[in-house]
From TrEMBL:
Compartments where found: Membrane
InterPro entries: Wax_synthase, Wax_synthase_dom
Signal peptide per UniProt: none
Residue intervals passing through the bilayer: 32-53, 65-84, 207-228
GO MF, one example: O-acyltransferase activity
Pathway annotation: Secondary metabolite biosynthesis
Domain Wax synthase, residue spans: 166-240
Organism listed in the record: Chlorella variabilis (Green alga)
Keyword Protein transport (UniProt): no
Keyword annotations: Membrane, Transferase, Transmembrane, Transmembrane helix
GO cellular component: membrane
PANTHER family associated with the record: LONG-CHAIN-ALCOHOL O-FATTY-ACYLTRANSFERASE 3-RELATED (PTHR31595), OS04G0481900 PROTEIN (PTHR31595:SF57)
Main localization of the protein described in the UniProt heading: membrane
Protein name per the record: Wax synthase domain-containing protein
Length: 320
């Protein structure tokens, strides 16, 4: 079927079924199973929507049906998909190669962070830094394993899911960024279905599409929080949605600096953006998930009894 309303109608039952996997598990006793199933109600859903619209990885020709299925089930992107555009002068690592030293380093960081969370009572600022590092290592490891699995099944090279742990866009979570670009940003800029128009989108339309993209990110992360806790946070939606206006502010400040002839060094720009998002995460992202006990449950389901009996973690979960 060609991309269009017919494909979208055919996809509706599939979209409904993809919402079911996280409901098959108890988040209190099967937290890991819920975490691993979270890909289905949003990244797999986006892949199906992309197929219906003629966009994204599922819209391209595949060498065989298993390849189509691999990129539908796994949160990974084949190298034939154009990744989110990098900033001027920056490179995006295109081909993922699993088995280098980075996975071992990330496992070591995760182990150290888990030990600290379960055994120590740490200062507020150190807790925040470790939470951010642990989140980056955990997310990137999961996506790297998924990329390796998709490449093995499909026989196709895949995009590196992470380039650098910095915000925004091309460097952080290439899979999510590219998926949201092809299923939210481009349809709002260019028309719902691929090939509808070749005209450049008006600036106001690009702004609306960008804000909607971050709001969509907030909605799917709020959905993930619901599946992990069976309640809504509100702050998770706000954390991701507010990054759209922040990106507008960053672009505006950049224009003012250029007009004034001021060149802000790249390390300063990276540090400022990262510190801003880290501060927001410390206020909006981490408190609810720690209070709900999700990291502690994941650790104790992996290692019953925890690493140190959980003495430090009890204080951390209420004060961190």
């Amino acid at each position: 079927m060609p991309a269009g309303w017919g494909r979208l109608a055919v996809a509706l039952p599939v979209l409904a079924v993809l919402q079911l996997p996280p409901f098959l598990f108890n988040p209190l006793t099967e937290t890991w199973a819920v975490v691993l199933s979270l890909n289905f109600p949003w990244l797999s859903v986006c892949a199906v929507l992309g197929w219906a619209m003629g966009r994204g990885p599922q819209a391209q020709p595949f060498p065989h049906y298993l390849a189509f299925l691999a990129f539908l089930v796994c949160p990974a992107l084949p190298c034939t998909v154009r990744p989110t555009e990098p900033a001027a002068g920056r490179r995006v690592q295109r081909t993922h190669q699993f088995g280098q030293w980075e996975p071992a380093a990330k496992v070591a960081v995760l182990a150290a962070a888990a030990t600290a969370f379960d055994c120590l009572v740490m200062p507020h600022w150190l807790t925040g830094i470790l939470q951010s590092l642990a989140l980056f290592c955990f997310t990137s490891l999961c996506l790297e394993v998924a990329a390796a699995a998709a490449s093995l099944v499909s026989g196709m090279p895949v995009l590196a899911p992470f380039n650098r742990p910095e915000f925004w866009g091309a460097q952080w979570n290439v899979v999510a960024g590219t998926t949201f670009r092809t299923t939210v940003y481009e349809p709002l800029c260019q028309g719902l279905f691929a090939g509808q128009t070749a005209a450049a989108a008006a600036p106001w339309r690009r702004v609306v599409a960008m804000l909607a993209t971050f709001a969509a990110s907030g909605a799917v992360h709020e959905l993930a929080f619901f599946h992990l806790t069976r309640r809504l946070s509100g702050r998770w939606f706000l954390f991701f949605t507010v990054q759209g206006p922040l990106l507008l502010a960053e672009a505006g400040l950049g224009r003012l600096c250029r007009q004034a002839g001021v060149q802000v060094p790249l390390p300063v720009r990276v540090a400022t953006a990262t510190a801003t998002v880290h501060m927001l995460a410390h206020m909006l992202f981490f408190p609810d998930i720690v209070e709900a006990g999700v990291p502690r449950r994941m650790l104790h389901q992996l290692l019953p009894g925890g690493l140190c009996g959980g003495g430090g973690g009890t204080k951390l979960s209420t004060g961190g």
